[in-house]
User: Which sequence fits this backbone?
């Protein structure tokens, strides 16, 4: 197996980093769709159950956005 140069390794790391950045961007786009739906569901549960648990869950979702 031929030895890889430092420059080749740097290029591979840069390419992997770019793929990770793209993956994170895709996850954020998906979260922007899921979080409002989950929030609406929590509001419905809160109205129906009148407990504090859905409120805590909503606060958690708010922090995650």
Assistant:
């Amino acid at each position: 197996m031929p030895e890889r140069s430092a420059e080749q390794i740097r290029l591979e790391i840069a390419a992997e980093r770019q793929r990770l950045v793209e993956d994170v961007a895709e996850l954020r786009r998906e979260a922007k769709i899921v979080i409002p739906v989950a929030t609406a569901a929590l509001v419905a549960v809160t109205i129906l159950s009148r407990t504090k648990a859905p409120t805590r869950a909503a606060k958690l979702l708010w922090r995650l956005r």
